[in-house]
Amino acid sequence: MAGSFVTVQCPDCENEQVVFSKASTVVNCAVCGTTLARPTGGNAAVEGEVTETVEAR
After folding, report:
1. Which residue, 25, 35, 47, 48, could crosslink 8 as a Cys pair with Cβ 3.0–4.6 Å?
2. How many whole angstroms separate alpha carbon 19 and alpha carbon 22?
3. Cα torsion at 33, 38, 43, 45 (round to 10°)?
4. 29 carries a ligand binding annotation
């Protein structure tokens, strides 16, 4: 089953960034560097708030 892209809001600077829901690497905020998502072997553990699903497959 394929993953999807989600928009995640950074808990520190409130920047919104698009992240793959099954990220295989650590995803950091492009503005402040805070970790937004960590790989877990399946769906990524999202640290910020998921505001919307951009593309579902």
Report:
1. 48
2. 9
3. -80
4. yes
32 assigned binding-site residue: yes
- The reply to whether 18 sits in an annotated binding site is no
Question: What's the pLDDT tens digit per position in 17-56?
Answer: 999 999 999 999 999 999 999 999 889 999 989 999 986 5
The CA distance from 33 to 54, in Å, is 22
Tokens for 41, please give them.
Answer: 């072997």
**Rounded CA separation 3/10 (Å):** 21
The pTM of this model reads: 0.81
Q: Which residues contact 38 (CB under 8 A, 6 or more apart)?
A: 23, 26, 44, 45, 47
12 is in an annotated binding site: no
